[in-house]
Amino acid sequence: MVFPYPVRVMGQLVELDCPGTTPGVARSACPRKRRRSIETGTPIVPYAVAVRVWEEACAWLGVELPRYWITRLAVRANVIYRHNPRFRQLMRRSGTAGRDWLWAFTRHWLAGLIWRHSRELHARLPAGYNVGQPLPARNHSPSH
Predict the structure, then answer these.
(1) For position 36, what pLDDT does the model report?
(2) For residue 75, how many other CB atoms are within 10 A of its CB?
(3) What's the pTM?
(4) What residue spans define the domains of the chain?
(5) Would you list the DSSP string of 87-107?
């Protein structure tokens, strides 16, 4: 069986249709596919951003959102990075600008997931969250 995409074997990505994975065949015979990801092109880690955005939304809403959404958000960031030159340009901005853009996009994408999952939960989010604005700080009064 030939797999047209890399598969994970013992923790390593292997292209099974590549002659370089066959014993006795030089690895240089493998065609090199350049896979762009945010992690390889910048110091930004989309999964870490997705975790924090998910955690802050869970805390704000007082519910645990589906955990698999974290992976969906991180994968979405990398897919868009791979295919969209303007998005890549934003992620590569100097200083913390790229990271800040990713936080905004991740909030926007999470707002969309929440809207599709539960309109009731979505209605509890501030309107600015839909366009990537951070959640406002909650005023917690002392309980004395």
Answers:
(1) 81
(2) 13
(3) 0.72
(4) 1-29, 38-131
(5) HHHHHT-TTTHHHHHHHHHHH
